[in-house]
């Protein structure tokens, strides 16, 4: 007697973990992928590329000491305001050096 072969179940059916569970675990624990690419010609290093990828939640990244996005003006409005304030103060200082106080026009 022969039995029909059983086909594998589609993803998401009958499995203990769905995509949301897996993503939650990855973000909670964090995943690091690291690799180096090195190109040599006759024992002379021509190019080295170091790749590092970290996948984690913001809280987990901060816990690991990674918070570079908070200081990047392109990613943080607070950092952008700090950068503009610093730039404005520098421009005012340079303007004062160029215009003596008596020659400055009232605005």
UniProtKB/TrEMBL annotation:
Superkingdom of the organism of origin: Bacteria
Keywords, in A-Z order: Coiled coil, Gas vesicle
Stored InterPro entries: Gas-vesicle_GvpA-like, GvpA, GvpA-like_CS
Stretches of the chain forming a coiled coil according to its record: 74-101
One Pfam assignment: Gas_vesicle
Main localization (coarse): other
Compartment(s) where it occurs, according to its Swiss-Prot or TrEMBL record: Gas vesicle
Homology family: Belongs to the gas vesicle GvpA family.
Protein name stated in the entry: Gas vesicle protein
């Amino acid at each position: 007697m022969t039995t029909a072969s059983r086909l594998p179940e589609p993803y998401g059916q009958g499995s203990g973990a769905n995509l949301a569970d897996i993503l939650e675990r990855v973000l909670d624990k964090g995943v690091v992928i690291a690799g180096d690419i090195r190109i040599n010609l006759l024992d002379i290093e021509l190019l080295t590329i170091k790749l590092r990828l970290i996948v984690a939640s913001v809280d987990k990244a901060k816990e690991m000491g990674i918070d570079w996005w908070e200081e990047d003006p392109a990613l943080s409005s607070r950092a952008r305001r700090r950068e503009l304030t610093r730039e404005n103060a520098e421009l005012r200082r340079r303007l004062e050096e160029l215009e003596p106080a008596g020659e400055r026009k009232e605005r």
